[in-house]
Amino acid sequence: MKFGQLDTWEEVNFSFPKLSKKTKSYLSVLDKVAKPNFFIGAPVFSDKNYKGTLFPLETRQTDFLQAYGKQFNSIEVAATRFGTPKKSTLQKWKDSVADDFKFSLKFPQVITHRKDINEAAAKQRLEDFLVALDFMGDKNGVAFAVMANYFRPDKFEGLVEFVEYLPKDVSFAIELRAPEWFESDSLQNEWQELFAENNIAPVLTDTPGRRDVLSFKLTNENLFIRYVGNYSNPLDKKRIDQWIVRIVELVDLGVKNVWFYAHQPGEKRELVVDFFNYLIERINNELNLSINKLINYKR
Q1: Distance between CA atoms of 96 and 210, rounded to whole angstroms?
Q2: What strands lie across the sheet with 172-175, from one edge to the other?
Q3: Which residue among 29, 63, 91, 141 is least packed, with the fewest CB closer than 10 Å?
Q4: How many helices (H) and strands (E) are present in the chain, helices listed first?
Q5: Could you give the maximum distance between any two Cα atoms of the chain, in Å?
Q6: What predicted TM-score, i.e. pTM, was given to this entire model?
Q7: Are 201 and 224 in contact (CB under 8 A)?
């Protein structure tokens, strides 16, 4: 994911905004859990750079997802932006991983990047996508829609129609990208209320070049994080430390499911093991979890 990537981070303020009273109010009505569900995933499962680090060196490309599923318990499937996969493909995915593995499928762009996201053709594609989510069954994670950069608040009524059309018994998240959505507290409160009323979680994108999108306007038990970093930059550990503090705070308030998907430059994805093992060690210590560390096949 290139959204918000920067070549240098020296001038970036990575601090988090405080949680609003409205966010705390939405979370306060949730049943608290002693231990949250924690789902982690790397950008893709098909990267050849994983061979010899995340995967055994001899892993065949046809077995990449199976190898990935032995390391992680979830994946953000960005490839579905090109279209809804055939049932045969979905079945292969399901058969390649453990029963408790979760797939978070990205909405196809043919839905989210139309001038009118509610036109008849878009609705038909959306129906196809919803059928696929139903087919995934218990392996369905949080399906997420990334709205186009040109989808601005003047389309708010369209957003309302789109959100209200989605089934309430399926977990969804939406990422708003146009800066105008974050320019005023009143507008943020408006779309946060819309999401809360329809059981939609906001996508929290932590990316260096767009700090405004990390608004923490949470609405339900799902904390959905898309983290854009740089595995070789020492600032990544400080950013993770900050996330640990915030995650503990949100779990105390009522968050039950944490979805943490990391995005890095392609040439640095082989460094994913050390990055996630640092995250896993910290989260295990702070929340008394027992997430297995990743195996580094390079060592």
Answers
A1: 36
A2: 37-41, 257-263, 222-228, 200-206, 172-175, 143-146
A3: 29
A4: 9, 8
A5: 55
A6: 0.96
A7: yes
